[in-house]
Each structure stands twice: as structure tokens, then as C-alpha cells.
Amino acid sequence: MITHIEGILKSKTPTDAVIDCGGVGFFIHITVNTYEQLPDTGQSCKLLTHLQIKEDAHTLFGFSTEGERALFRLLLSVTGIGAASARMMLSAMPAEELAGQIEAGNTHIIQSIKGIGAKTAQRVVMELKDKIQKMAFEVPNQPHLDNKPAEEALSALVQLGFSKPVASKTVQAVMKSAPSGGISVEEIIRLALKML
């Protein structure tokens, strides 16, 4: 098993990277979140890897963190989830956030990911909820919203069934693009719902 690749980053796109390791170029499939962590081409780079061996192909998948790789492997253990679906899920949101959605049982958010239907989302939650709790994924702390309308909008979104980390991130995005004169609670909620 190849556990990691370390070398010079030769090329990168949001879906793959090529790392030159001792004169051998390794083509590695990556997630969007890993892509965002990669250095500029020509720089030294290390990716944790998962090697998938099939009759017709040996495929390397690369990850910037151990948590992302561990969650990828857990997703592969779910019936109906292949490498492409697992990579899509981990590209849709950071590993810690996805783990939090699974642990909270938020199937509606999981099935909003392209290619993931309601039954698959339910299977992911049912089969992985306990395993994720044992892995103790840390959901990153969300920055505090020091704006009263933003806090009220966040509270409303949570009551509507959205997870707090996702709702908080969305409200923050709305607030960043809000006019300097302020924005009402109703407007924040309306704009956030369009993004969720």
C-alpha cells in the first residue's frame, strides 16, 4: 500500500495533481478541498494517499489531511458509494463538516450533494454515524457572529433544520456581501436559503 507521496508538484487542477517523486510522476485524484491546500506548482508537496486496485486500473487518491482520507475510506465502506461519489462528497464540503452532518443525521444536506440520492444519504448516516463518533472528528469552531440580525437569522435557520456549522458559514457569506448600512433578519434568511 502506498501511504503517501512526497515530491515536487508538477501540475494541479481541482480534480487531480501530478507529483514528481524521484523522477517518477504520480497522477493523483484529489478533492477540491485538497486542491485548495496545495502549494504552487514547482513547490515541494506531500499528499496522503489511498490506492484503489481494480482489474483494469490502479488509481491513487490524495488527501491533505488524515481526517479526509479516513472519511474517504469510511465512505467507501457504504453500499452504493464508490470512489467517485466519495470524492464528490468530500469536494462538496470539508471532511470535518461532512462528518458533522453525518453524525447529526442531516440526510437532507448530504443528499443535496450531486449524485447522492435520498436512500444513499440515509445509508451513509445509518452505517457511519457510530463510526464517526468513535473517530472523534472535530467540527471547526465557527467565528462568532457579533451582529444581532445575523445571530437571529442563524437561530432561525437552525430551527428550520439546517446544521449550525453550515448555517453559520452561510450567514457569514451573506453578511460579507451585505451593504454597509445593514441588512434585516428577514433579508439575511432569504439570501441564506438561496445559498443552502
Mean pLDDT reading? 87
Poorly predicted parts: 138-144
Give the biggest sheet: 5 strands, mixed, barrel
Helix content: 40-55%
- Tell me the total number of β-strands: 5
- Annotation field: number of helices: 9
Instruction: Assign the structural class, choosing from mainly alpha, mainly beta, alpha/beta, alpha+beta, or little secondary structure.
Output: alpha+beta
What is the straight-line distance between the termini? 39 Å
- The arrangement of helices and strands along the chain is EEEHEEHHHHHHHH
The global form is: globular
Major β-sheet strand ordering = 1-2-3-5-4
How much β-strand is present in the residues?
A: 15-25%
Q: For the CA atoms, what is the radius of gyration?
A: 19 Å
Would you kindly provide a written description of the structure presented here, covering whatever features stand out?
- The protein is α+β, with helices and mostly antiparallel strands and 196 residues long.
- 48% of the residues lie in helices and 20% in strands.
- The protein contains 9 helices and 5 strands; from the N terminus they run E-E-E-H-E-E-H-H-H-H-H-H-H-H.
- It has helices at residues 32-37, 66-76, 83-92, 95-104, 107-110, 118-135, 148-159, 164-176, 185-195, and strands spanning 4-12, 16-21, 24-30, 44-54, 57-63.
- It has a 5-stranded mixed barrel.
- Strand 1 and strand 2 form a beta hairpin.
- The radius of gyration is 19 Å and the shape is globular.
- The model is unreliable at 138-144 (pLDDT under 50).
